[in-house]
Amino acid sequence: MTEPLPSLQIQSVVYNNAFSDIAAAVEATANSARYAQQEGVIGEWVLLLGDCGAVPFATEQEIAGLADVASASGGSLAYTHFGENLGSAGGHNALAAQGASALLIILNPDAHMAYDTISRLTVALLPDVGLVESRQVPVEHPKDYERGTGLTSWGSTACAMTPRSVFDKLGGFDAATFFLYCDDVDYSWRARLAGYSVRYEPSARLFHDKRLTLTGDWPVSEAELYYSAEAALLLAHKYSRPDIVAKVVHSLERSTDLHHKRALAEFMRRRSAGELPSPIDPDHRVAQFEAGNYAVHRF
Amino acid sequence: MNSSAQSLLHPQVSRSSLSDFLQGLAREPLIQPELAGVLKAAVDMLRAESDVASPFLTVLLRTQGKRIETFKDALLCLSAQTFGDFEVLVLAHDVEPEGLAEIGHVVANQVESFRTRIRIIPVEGGSRAVPLNVGLEESAGRYISVFDDDDLLFANWVESFHEASERSPGRLLRSVVATQQVHPEKWADGADGFRTSTWPTAEYAKKFDQFDHLVVNHSPFMGWAFPRELFHVLGVRFDETLDVCEDWDVIVRGSLLMGVDDVPYLTAIYRRWVGGVSSYNQHSSAEWRSSEARVIDKVNSLPMLLPAGTMMQVRTWLEFGKPEDMINQLRDIHHSKGWQALQIARARMAPARKIVGRVARLMGRR
């Protein structure tokens, strides 16, 4: 008797996105799920949109139109307006709790999947894998991965697949610690501590609309300045690296950037209030702090 | 001014260099009315194609079907464009039936809103220019761009061309392209994949320089959108006798005829292959030299239409030398031991620095 095909829940957290961007992404996601179903690698699928914006990003009629797109591709779509900004980690935990599928895909709301992204991720999700990540274009993430296996330090949840069993075992994302950035680094490292591998699957491509400046540089947003600084402190603390915490604190103290100052102040407040997580990975088995990054980078 | 000449100055006229040149001739107060009529008809023809053709852009996507994984990347980049008024002609050049079937499979599985804008056109034989000329015959777009199957586009590639086209109708549009190294590598599933090994580098000039482009091409193909009139009115075609440099040939001839508008965005990534086959190593150095020589001969054999402002540019060069040369000379002096040791020399050089600054500002290089 053949095993039933694994069911899939794809979930995106929306926050003040333009409807047209989400509509285009939904069409691409539904097409990718249709292809995976046609290829016989997944069974039933659903796309969940969780809205953290103050007001719904779309009208009921527009949401119904998106649901029609999913339905025409053999799946379904459900929309939840959270009514508060839960952040990326909190939003995904809330969405995950809405279903019981065997597989989960965490997806940026405005990212475009290729037609075979879901099928490539599913095939790459071998029994030992806790998280498998897609390759982003046009700006590819520089972190290193092992030739042949794709083994890597952590996986970006711009588009990544994880078995629900792993998600549940890990208790989902650590929303109490990470609001916006590095919740995926933390999830990856906890998966590896639990004995799973994290893999990069270059054949599973994802278009993520990132732009570079005319000089080829990454334009850093205000949110990125704040949350990346905060996450650097939180990750170093959680993964038992007080030496790194001290270095980052020293660096932020010397920074003239107001977002850096705010991030440092918030970390200090949480430390004083006893709101920081208990440190884990005391033997440094999984956490990598490499020149300000969380993996060795290829470039 | 006669009525024919006045009509040539209507604000809606195309702003290509050739149109400007013809209009300049027509402004002569004593021009023969018959000649003015001919000039007006020529200017009208140069804008007539754009008035009727649609969609905005035709993308000539050249593929040999040898890199299906990069081809998938290329289509994904196109499918995610923020401005969707374009068609894609997949020019499958000398592709074996198996490869053609694979290309067909990839296209057939694109989202419907994109798939309906793609056509696959098999092309047999000839140089790299042949599929482009086949694509030109099939193109319906008001502008035409060339995008090879192993490069990448940012989401605003088409949108930024469209924005610039409204600013400068009739001119070539040039955006900025970065380069990035990739290595061929087998992927876990056995596919002929690749590994990206550098961050995108913006190594090409941010602004187009006509004279620099007479020396060598500084602008990868996919950074350009060519007005339809270049091909469908003026009759320019890609030179099928060239083994390589078919892009440089049309870029130089087109820019001289129609002028160039700079698009101030980085819109694409040109992948440089380290190992594996690319146009760099697929063709011998003799083929490269021969193609370059042919392009130079063709351009050199005809009178040249240069952009407005060239008169002042050339006069400045003849008087002071090229700004880069002067700036480099000053930089050398500034870093020399003598410069650092002799404070008095700085005072003496102050006038020269002012001149260089003035020249550089004149040339728009700072």
Notes on the structure:
- The complex is a heterodimer of chains A (299) and B (366).
- With 299 residues, chain A is α/β, with parallel strands linked by helices.
- Chain A contains nine helices and eight strands.
- In chain A, strand 2 (45-51), helix 2 and strand 3 form a beta-alpha-beta unit.
- The termini of chain A are far apart.
- The model of chain A has no long low-confidence stretch (mean pLDDT 97).
- Chain B folds into three domains: 3-52; 57-300, Spore Coat Polysaccharide Biosynthesis Protein SpsA, Chain A (Alpha-Beta Complex); 310-363.
- The two termini of chain B are 40 Å apart.
- Chain B is globular.
- In chain B, strands 1, 2, 3, 4, 5, 6, 7, 8 and 9 form a nine-stranded mixed beta sheet that branches.
- Chain B is built from 17 helices and nine strands.
- Chain B is of the alpha/beta class.
- Residues 1-14 and 362-366 of chain B have low confidence and may be disordered.
- The A-B interface holds A 24, 27-28, 31, 35, 112, 114-116, 120, 123-124, 137-140, 142, 147-150, 201-203, 205, 207, 209-216, 298-299 and B 69, 72-73, 75-77, 79-80, 82, 106, 109-113, 152-156, 176, 178, 185-189, 191, 193-202, 206, 264-266, 268-269.
Question: What is the compact description of this entry?
Answer:
The complex is a heterodimer of chains A (299) and B (366). With 299 residues, chain A is α/β, with parallel strands linked by helices.
